[in-house]
Structures are given as C-alpha cells and as structure tokens.
Specification:
Blueprint: H1 3-22, H2 25-55, H3 61-70, H4 92-107, H5 113-116
Length: 123
C-alpha cells in the first residue's frame, strides 16, 4: 500500500468520525469523497502490484504463483489414491486407510507400530 493511500485512509477515517459525531449532510459528502478517493487508490495500488508481479515472474515464479493460488476459490481435495496393488480407492474411508498405511511404511519406527495401527479408528 502506498503512502498516499495510507494518508487517504486516515483522512477518510477522520471524516467518518466527524460525520458520526454530528450527522451533517455536508460532513457526509466530505466522507463520501474521501471514501471514493481511497477506493480508487486501492485499485491503482492493486493493479500496480499485479503488474510488478508479472514483470518479476521470470525471476521469481514462486511469488507469482503463490499470489495466483491465493486468489483461487476452489480448494484442492485428495479424491483417489492408488494402493500397493495399483488399485484406486473408491471412497474416503479407503483413501484415508491407504494414506495411513503409507505413512506407517515410510515414517513409523518399529517401536511405535502399535500406535499407528489405531489409524483405522479415524477413517
């Protein structure tokens, strides 16, 4: 956010407080013009930031793609996974059991195998 936008935000907030105290039409008009100026500046700052991301995309793709991911509306879900027999899971319970088994194979210490066998309770 630019310094100019921050100044306009303070001006808008002061204008709102003045209007809230007195409820005068003239003060509301002052607040409205300050509010509109803030909205315009925020939109300019956002566009400028997006343009800078595009310019920096070659040098820092991680920054660009993290911004794009933050704007996604759809969450990513694990729908199906393959088990050791290369068969796809058909429901959530089976998927969670396959992931639990995989976790046991990769991370489980032999002393704690009994602890991980209780994973089926969470399915």
């Amino acid at each position: 956010m630019s310094k100019e936008t921050k100044k306009l935000l303070k001006k808008r907030n002061r204008a709102w407080l003045a209007y809230a105290k007195n409820k005068c039409n003239r003060l509301y008009a002052v607040y409205k013009s300050a509010r509109n100026a803030v909205v315009i500046n925020i939109r300019k700052d956002k566009a400028q930031y997006q343009k800078s991301l595009v310019r920096k995309m070659k040098r820092s793709p991680k920054m660009f793609y993290s911004y794009i991911r933050s704007k996604q509306r759809n969450a990513v879900y694990v729908t199906t996974v393959r088990n050791t027999a290369s068969r796809l899971s058909s429901n959530d319970t089976e998927t969670s059991q396959i992931l639990c088994d995989q976790f046991q194979q990769v991370y489980a210490n032999q002393d704690y195998v009994d602890l991980f066998k209780s994973c089926s309770k969470f399915s």
